[in-house]
Each structure stands twice: as C-alpha cells, then as structure tokens.
Amino acid sequence: MGAYTAAYERSIADPTRFWGLAARDVRWLVPPDRVLDDGAPPFYRWFTGGELNTCDNALDRHVEEGRGDQPALIYDSPVTGTVRSYTYRELTEIVARFAGALRAQGVDRGDRVVIYLPMVPEAVIAMLACARLGAVHSVVFGGFAAPELAVRIDDARPKAVVSASCGIEAGRVVPYKPLLDRALDLAKHKVERCVIRQREQLHADLVRPRDVEWDEAVAAAEPAECVPAAATDPLYILYTSGTTGRPKGVVRDNGGHAVALRWSMENVFGVGPGDVFWAASDVGWVVGHSYIVYAPLLTGCTTVLYEGKPVGTPDAGAFWRVAAQHRVKALFTAPTAIRAIKKEDPEGALLAGYDLSALDTLFLAGERLDPGTYRWAARVLDRPVIDHWWQTETGWPIAANLRGLEPMPVKPGSPSVPVPGYAVRILGPDGAPLPPGEDGDIALRLPLPPGTLPTLWQDDERFVESYLTKHPGHYLTGDGGHVDEDGYVWVMGRTDDVINVAGHRLSTGTMEEVIASHPAVAECAVIGVEDPLKGQVPRGLVVLKNGVLAEPGEVCAELVAMVRDQVGPVAALKEVTVVPALPKTRSGKILRGVMRGIADGREVSAPSTIEDMTVLDALRPVLRADD
Ligand code: COA
Ligand code: AMP
C-alpha cells in the first residue's frame, strides 16, 4: 500500500489517532482532553479542552526556536515600488505592539474586528494581532462596495474596524475611507473605533474621535502578550457567497485550524520550515487567510505578500520576477491568473529572464483548472502543475495531489484524490451513493476533518439547513461531479447559484437583489456564463415593467452601474439585456440552469414542467448572441 492510501485509510478509520498525532506539531498551552468531540451530531468539535494561541504558533514560537532572523514576511508591491522583508523577530514585535494598540481601543478576547485593507503588511499584522488577543477578525475583500461591507459589519458586530486610506488597483488609487464611511453610515451596528492606515498615495479625512491613525495608535501602545484561547474559540469569521443575497459567516476555530493547516503544508504542498511559499491571492479570500497568512507562518516558512496583478504590473512576467527574486519554492494562484499571463505572453517568452531554479511546483485552485491552461503552464514552466479543490468552508484542500505525502500521476481536469480526513461521496438526488463515473452531488461524510467550519457565525440553524440537511450525515459542498475508477475526483461546477468570476466567489442572488430594486424592472435573472479569461462572468436578463418610458439601453447602463456601486467592481457585471419574458416552470421557478446551458452552447433539454416553451425559444438567439 502506498503512503497516500495508508494515510487516507488511517484518517477515515481512526480520525482521533490520525489528528491526535498531527496535533503534536502545534504548541499547546493546555493539551486537549479530546481530539474529536462527537457528542452532539451533526455538530463536531476538535481538540476540546485544549488551549493555544494561534499567533504564538505563527510567530513567537519560531523566534524562541531559533528562527528569529529568518524572513517571515516579504511584502512585494510593484504598484508602489516597494519590497520589504520582516524577520520573525520583527514581525512578532510589530504584531505584539499592534495588539496592544487594539487593546487600548477596547478590543478584548472574543470581540470582533473587521479588517478592510488592501494587500499591505498591515493586513497580516492586524489579523495576527487579533489572534494574539483572542479577538475574532473578519476580513472583507477590498473589491466589495460599501453596502456589502455594511452587511458584514451588521452581522459580525465588530468593536473596531481596521482600514486604510486607499488601495491601488490597475494604476489607479482606490479611496477606501469614503467606502468605509458610507458603510458605517449604512450599518445599524455602531462601530466605536476605526484604526486607519494612512498611505502616502492618498491621505484620508478622519472622523474624530472615532477614527485614529495607525501610527498614532501604535506609538501610544504597550506590546501585548498572547492570550490563551480555547481550541474551539473562533479565530475568524470569513463571509462567503451563498445562494441568497445574505453572505454566510464561515467560522474558523483556533485548534483544528492550526493542526490542519500545519499538516497540509508538508503533506499537500511539500514545503517545510525555512521554505519560501507564495500564494498570489488576496487576504480577503480564504486562500489568503490560509496560505498567505496562517499556514506558512504556522510552518516557519517565509510568506510573500504581493500587491500587484499577474499582468500589467508591469507585464506578464511579474509572477516569474517575484518567484525568482524571493527564491519561491511553491507558488499558488488561480487558473484565471495563468490565463491572463498566457493571453499576453502565449509562448512564455518572459520566463527567459528569470532564474526559477528554486521553484518546485505551481499550485492552482479557486476554480476549475481547464486542461488547456494546465497544459500551457506545465509546458512553459516544465515542472509539476497541481490542481486542488476546496472552498471557504473547508479552509484547506478537500482533493489534491499530495506532493509531500505521495505525488501521483496528474489527470488534467481533475484535482486528483480526496485528502486524508475527507470522506468524499457522490450522492444522487435520493441520497444514494453513485457508482464511479456518474455525476451527482459531491458530499463529505461527517465528521469533517479539523480546520473546516464548525458552524456559521451565530447561526447554527442556517449551517444545518444550508449544508447538512439535503443528505443527512453528510456536508453538501455545493459542487457537482464524480469520482472515477481510480478514485480521482472530477469537479464539474456548482449546483447552486454561486458563480466564480476570476477566482472570486460571488452570488448571483446578491446581484439580482440589486437589479430588482430598480423602479423599471419587473423581474430579472443573473446567470454565470463561460468566459475564456475569467472562467465565468455574470450576465443579467431583465424584464421591464409595462409602461416604462426609459430607453432599454439606458436602464441596462444604470443597472450595471448600480451593481458596481452596491456589490463592488469585483462583481464584473458588464452585460445586462432587456428580454420580453423569462422562462419559468409552472410553479414560477426561473430556469437559470437552462439559460446558462444555452449561453454556454451546451445541449440542454427544457424540463417538462416549463410553463411556456415559446419564451425559451425567443431567448435562444439573445443568449447565444456572443458566438
Ligand atoms: N479593490 C478595489 N477594486 C478591486 C479589487 C480591490 N481589492 N480587486 C479587484 N478590483 C476591481 C478591479 O480593478 C476591476 O475593476 P474594473 O472593472 O474597473 O477594471 C474589477 O474589480 C474586476 O477585477 P478582477 O476580477 O480582478 O479583474 P481584472 O480585469 O482587474 O483582472 C485578473 C483579471 C485575471 C488579472 C485578476 O482577476 C486576477 O489576478 N485574478 C486572480 C484571482 C485570485 O487571486 N483569486 C483569489 C482566489 S485564489
Ligand atoms: P471559495 O469558497 O471562494 O474558495 O470558492 C469555492 C468554490 O470554487 C468551490 O465550491 C468550487 O466551485 C470552486 N473551486 C475551487 N477550487 C476548484 C478546483 N480546483 N476545481 C474546480 N472548482 C474549484
């Protein structure tokens, strides 16, 4: 039996022993009484009775164990022309000081702190400072607009918000502070304190006494020590898109998270202490939480924080420049970034100028890795290109080619095999397991391994209803697909109304809510259609109210602007079309899946319950207009 099969079987047959052993790589202040607490299904808790501090494991511990002078964080920002490295010792001191500053602003164990920052070191510092205090951070991606930020503020009810004067996007300065001010006006919850990082590109106006400058707050602060947290205490909340417009607050605990991420670095990614790891994502997404911040630091790696794009900062060789300059061993990004590079530099000519001898592997996740992109990257890089599949809820890979444990042959289009701890099952509509090769719901038998979500923030009911009800005893991933005869998982796409735009997870429901609020709109649908660069892009279809006098083109332009203003530029809704009617079932359900299929050029048969076939026929040319 190979190392993978042996480990996988052990993890499923005896999870307590498997994760109990993995937990030895974490520094506990109080060892757990139980590895897996399975007393109240469908809720499971890992490492109950244990106490630790995640920041201690990510920073202080490494300084004490001799890594004080090793770079912990390299900030590489082509958009500001800055490269700055922080050793473990420096980062520990800075984080301790900022934790003291937060405490002085009234933040204590269990309090929430919303972080709305671009890709600057302060984002990492603020996250770790919260962990140090036992406070719970909730990072909101900078590409979301004020109303989305307000919804998250109202759900998390933070004591403080940490933000910056601006971000820098595609050569333009994006003022963050006016967005924050608007969000605070919109939110019902009143935030007592905002700590604002003033960047030299733009100075923000402060609202005293609520707002305090980062430097001011730090100058007056005493360093704070690590506060012991229960293994089961929340470390962070990360909001993610669901089917409805209301985002889901995915909760991450301290203990299971530290154990799982530490284990994943060596076993999945094949990297260990001292290696340089670079996840070219954003701290606002789960990839950024897990693989820019926590996993590399828990492992004693050097992590790279990149404030730039794959192309245009300054060119399509940017990733290779960063990888060469910092001797990156493992690079992790989204397929869309590779497609953007391929489009501008189809032969990979820009690779020639860089010494990539340190780079072992390119890891890709966040959306399906299409075989064309896989083959191109494998050819130009001439090293393993590894797809892996996971989601915000799990926090770390569900299926992967485990480079550290036992590398296996790659099948282009598949993220390979279930990772130890994940009992992947393909279930039919009636819950029955399906044979190899047959598509169904991809579900995970409970209990989920450590590091995965224990619940949704203050909403056990929604957690159960969203994930655990359709197939009792299983977690529903929301993805459909199959497992083949060799045990490889094939993820074919979402089975709900979540779409994936340039590796960004978005809800069509949120966009529909915004569009439906326009006075001229009678009804609408937003669907995700295939896009050669971004994987998917949203497309809006609207039916106008009778008697609307405005030009349809004018209404569509207003709708595009509204979505940008209320959801954010990242929604990337550029196309809205007025149609006479939307196809529905007799019970009134809009046939989004059928429309999506037609737009993507797939053969789709309309359900027998369709109300009026002529409506669908009339839409066909509109949906296929781009061909
Ligand atoms: N703050 C403010 N605006 C932001 C933003 C942020 N943090 N991130 C993105 N935006 C804006 C962009 O500027 C763009 O605005 P525009 O419509 O005025 O051009 C819009 O949101 C859409 O952004 P994006 O989807 O990133 O498209 P793009 O055309 O700017 O870039 C790629 C395309 C492929 C280069 C880019 O999406 C990319 O690097 N993707 C990698 C994906 C990734 O890291 N995913 C995380 C999960 S692994
Ligand atoms: P997020 O929660 O933002 O990480 O998005 C998770 C979703 O992205 C998954 O449910 C999938 O639909 C999709 N996804 C992520 N990685 C992959 C992958 N390697 N292959 C296919 N789909 C993926």
Automatic annotation (TrEMBL):
The keyword Transmembrane does not apply. Keywords: Ligase. The keyword Ligase applies. GO terms for cellular component: intracellular organelle lumen. This is Acetate--CoA ligase. Its EC number is 6.2.1.1. CDD domains: PrpE. Signal peptide: none annotated. It holds the Pfam family AMP-binding_C. Residues 65-445 form the AMP-dependent synthetase/ligase domain. Gene3D superfamilies: 3.30.300.30, N-terminal domain of ligase-like.
